[in-house]
From TrEMBL:
Domain Glycosyl hydrolase family 13 catalytic: 12-420
Name the UniProt record assigns to this protein: Glucohydrolase
Alphabetized InterPro entries for the sequence: GH (IPR017853), GH13_cat_dom (IPR006047), Glyco_hydro_b (IPR013780), O16G_dom_2 (IPR045857), SusG-like_C (IPR056300)
One of the protein's GO biological processes: oligosaccharide catabolic process
Organism of derivation: Massilimicrobiota timonensis
Keyword Isomerase (UniProt): no
Record-linked Pfam families: Alpha-amylase, SusG_C
Length: 554
């Protein structure tokens, strides 16, 4: 079925790190407005704005203390309205981040719940008595440590948090709480935004039997995923949420839902599912453990990665739709994640990886800095990291018996700060992000990898991204790339090849993800639409140079 949101090309902005407009070293909404020309020129049609709401910033805004206010570091509500308006003038839509599994512990509701155990707000959260001087269950939170935090000045009383202790989970079992959340969602939709990226939404239902799980770490705890993620009954909450908010506004929603087994897709993206689309993490989390730990290092092969990617496409489109992405603000840079040899993290490879994703079936999401081929930062001390999860994973690795050096290595590889260092706009001081020292150190390679250096270079990663977007939007091929079938092709391990086709076109997308020349059979073709290297096709074969990518109209 044709849907407008299937045709978008989304660009994800992490506002704190995108552009500082007022000289305080922190990115802000006016900074985004300054860069709208850049985004229009790139060709994207929608922006996903990571949280800019009022927040104590324990988790950089994913801990919201007031859904109706903008954090002063980012600007004002007028700035958001201006952004929506100015983006619209450029035919760019805005989706906001919707964080409704939890609030900040500094949210007025939670403060009231703490102050007055008899207040109705107590039941907006999950409070429970401990057992035998211990928390109610032995579940480990996503950011490590117990999911339970002791309530100050009360005996044997705890509150629940899936993430940090400054992010208490909302109690979705409470209809009054749900109504307050729906009111807030509708208030934002009334502003004229196009929809939401919906944070950690598969956590909103908890197993109500509150049983201990099997201990799976040196901390004596048990991963909370078995009890607090993708739980049966969650579909009841989804249905109401959709009917009372998203349906009313016909908005676009994309669910962040890690670890959803494919047989459960229906409640997320099926016809009666809650969301327009979801992100499937089953292939992108290839570098971390099932419990989302950054250690030990995972041994994965390109074959496994390819199989997972193809399986994802196969399963998702049986049921609904997905957003496809190479990077986001919770991952490391893709060149580091997917390419083992540091020498091979080159612009050519960045183009090949970008192409692999841009032409999959699904709505493409590009993360800021991906379009210029940014690579990870290397930090010498744990103190140089800002991300709370980097500190948590470091502590847990030590606890599990790894050395400080090993623990730092895990964090350097996987830290979320890798995608959160300020955007590199040029090779000047502070990379043109700000004229004062940024809140987080600039990317160490900003002198070589930056927007200004790439924008007029027709051979740059940035230019390739522009060409890919333009090709996807070209009326001759647009329908094929959006709605056409996806067919994976057999090939050697490091070659990823697939065909997108409909009645009009048959288009081969091929990427040679190795530092070695190879070939691929090609019986007939009409035209090469794009490539990151010179084209050699003869004797019914495509010759592919190391890391060559090509789009070929058959
Ligand atoms: C999501 C966000 C992540 C955040 C977490 C808790 O996974 O993407 O950045 O830390 O939810 O809100
Ligand atoms: Ca600023």
């Amino acid at each position: 079925m044709q849907e407008w949101w299937k045709e978008e090309i989304v660009y994800q902005i992490y506002p704190k790190s995108f552009k500082d407009s007022n000289h305080d070293g922190i990115g802000d909404i006016q900074g985004i407005i300054e860069k709208l020309d850049y985004l229009e020129d790139l060709g994207v049609t929608m922006l996903w704005i990571c949280p800019v709401y009022q927040s104590p910033m324990d988790d950089n805004g994913y801990d919201i203390s007031d859904y109706y206010q903008i954090h002063p570091d980012f600007g004002t509500m007028e700035d958001i309205d201006e952004l929506i308006q100015k983006a619209k003038e450029r035919h760019i839509k805005i989706i906001m981040d919707l964080v409704i599994n939890h609030t900040s512990d500094e949210h007025a509701w939670f403060q009231e719940a703490l102050k007055n155990p008899d207040s109705p707000y107590r039941n907006y959260y999950i409070f429970k008595e401990g057992k035998n001087d211990q928390p109610p269950t032995n579940w480990r939170s996503v950011f490590s440590g117990s999911v339970w935090e002791k309530v100050p000045h009360e005996d044997n009383m705890y509150y629940f948090h899936s993430f940090s202790k400054k992010q208490p989970d909302l109690n979705w079992e409470n209809p009054q709480m749900r109504e307050d959340i729906y009111r807030m969602i509708n208030w934002w939709l009334d502003k004229g935004i196009a929809g939401f990226r919906v944070d950690a939404i598969n956590f909103i239902k908890k197993d109500q039997s509150w049983q201990d799980g099997p201990v799976d770490g040196a901390d004596g705890l048990s991963s909370c995923f078995e009890f607090a993620r993708n739980q049966p009954g969650i579909e009841v909450f989804f249905k109401e949420l959709r009917e009372k908010t998203f349906d009313v506004h016909q908005c676009m929603t994309v669910a962040e839902a890690v670890g959803v087994p494919y047989h459960q897709l229906d409640i997320f993206i099926g016809e009666k599912g809650c969301f327009s689309m979801m992100f499937d993490f089953n292939y992108s989390h290839i570098d971390i453990t099932e419990h989302e730990e950054w250690f030990p290092l995972q041994n994965w092969t390109m074959q496994e990665y390819k199989d997972k990617l193809f399986l994802s496409q196969k399963e998702i489109f049986k049921t609904g739709w997905c957003g496809v992405f190479l990077e986001n603000h919770d991952m490391q840079r893709s060149l580091n994640r997917l390419i083992r040899n540091p020498q091979e993290r080159t612009p050519k490879v960045a183009k090949a990886l970008g192409q692999l994703f841009m032409f999959l079936k699904g709505t493409p999401f590009i993360y800021q800095g991906e379009e210029i081929g940014t690579i990870n930062n290397h930090r010498l001390s744990i103190n140089d990291f800002d991300d709370l999860n980097s500190h948590a994973q470091y502590r847990r690795a030590l606890q599990e018996g790894y050395s400080e050096e090993e623990a730092l290595d895990f964090v350097n590889r996987r830290s979320r700060d890798n995608t959160r260092s300020p955007m590199s706009w040029n090779n000047q001081r502070y990379a043109g992000f700000s004229d004062t020292k940024p809140w987080l150190a600039n990317n160490e390679y900003y002198k070589e990898i930056n927007v200004a250096g790439e924008i007029n270079d027709s051979d740059s990663v940035l230019s390739y991204y522009k060409q890919m977007i333009a090709l996807r939007q070209n009326p001759l091929y647009h329908q094929t790339f959006v709605y056409g079938d996806f067919t994976p092709l057999d090939s050697e391990e490091y070659v990823i090849a697939y065909i997108r086709q409909d009645k009009q076109n048959q288009i081969l997308c091929i990427q040679n993800l190795q530092n070695k020349t190879t070939s691929f059979p090609l019986e007939h073709y009409s035209k090469v639409l794009l490539s990151n290297d010179d084209i050699h096709i003869y004797d019914h074969q495509i010759q592919l140079s190391p890391y060559q990518s090509m789009i070929i109209l058959l």
